Each structure stands twice: as C-alpha cells, then as structure tokens.
Amino acid sequence: MELKFLVVDDSVTMRRIVANSLRNLGYDNFVEAADGKDALTKLTSDDQINFIITDWNMPVMTGLEMTKAIRGDERYVKLPILMVTTRGIKEDIVEALQAKVNNYVVKPFTPQILKEKIDQILSNL
C-alpha cells in the first residue's frame, strides 16, 4: 500500500522537518495543512490520504479536536493518526490516546523514532 501522509502543524519549520524525515524514510507522498480545520478540508477532498501526522497545539482547531472530528466520521475510524507534539506529560498522552490517536511522539524526535512509530501503527492495522 502506497502511503500518502497529511502533515498537520502550524509551524512551517516543523512541517518541513517532518516532511524531510518522511523523505529520508522513503515516503515522498504527502500534503501539508496549517491547522486542524485546514487538515479536515484536505482530508475530505483527497481520498488518497491514508496516514495523518499531527501536532496538538495549533490555532483554529487543535490536533486533539481534529482527531475527535475524524474519529466521529465513519469513513475515518481506522485512519492512522500519529500525534507529534511538545506536550509530554502523562495526562496529555492519556487524553490523546483516549481520543483515539494511534501513537504519540514527543518533540524533539529523530527520523528513527518517527519510523518506529509509523511501523508500529502499520503493523497494528
């Protein structure tokens, strides 16, 4: 299965870091969104997207709000979502997992950590 990622972060720099990490891992099919609302628009207009990497802290709509909206849509119940965020306290991780993100990475991260998390999610599908 060819993966098409939706990379969601309000930071252009962080989107570039994630995109470069994905390229280094051999994934070169992705689109970017600046916040959760933008991401939902892109997701619903592109039926090729099959993996989301999202930040939590964003204006307009947070990654957590976006995840809840996605999980509330029957079409996307099984869509893999990896949250990559600075929020590293246990309560935040639990809240994200309860919202049904598939995995969680605390920034800063290495491409190797990103690869491990993506592989873990894919092996559980």
Offer a concise description of the structure.
With 125 residues, this protein is α/β, with parallel strands linked by helices. It has a single domain (5-123), classed as 3-Layer(aba) Sandwich (Rossmann fold). The chain is built from five helices and five strands; from the N terminus they run E-H-E-H-E-H-E-H-E-H.
Keyword list:
alpha/beta, 5-stranded parallel sheet, 5 helices
Mean pLDDT: 96
The CATH architecture would be 3-Layer(aba) Sandwich
Strand content: 15-25%
Low confidence ranges: none
One letter per element, helices H and strands E, the order comes to: EHEHEHEHEH
Number of strands: 5
The outline comes out as: globular
Q: What's the total helix number?
A: 5
Instruction: Output the CATH class name.
Output: Alpha Beta
Read across the widest sheet, the strand sequence of neighbours is 2-1-3-4-5
- The number of distinct structural domains comes to 1
CATH H-level superfamily title: Response regulator
| Largest sheet, strands/sense/barrel | 5 strands, parallel
State the helical fraction: 40-55%
Distance between the termini: 12 Å
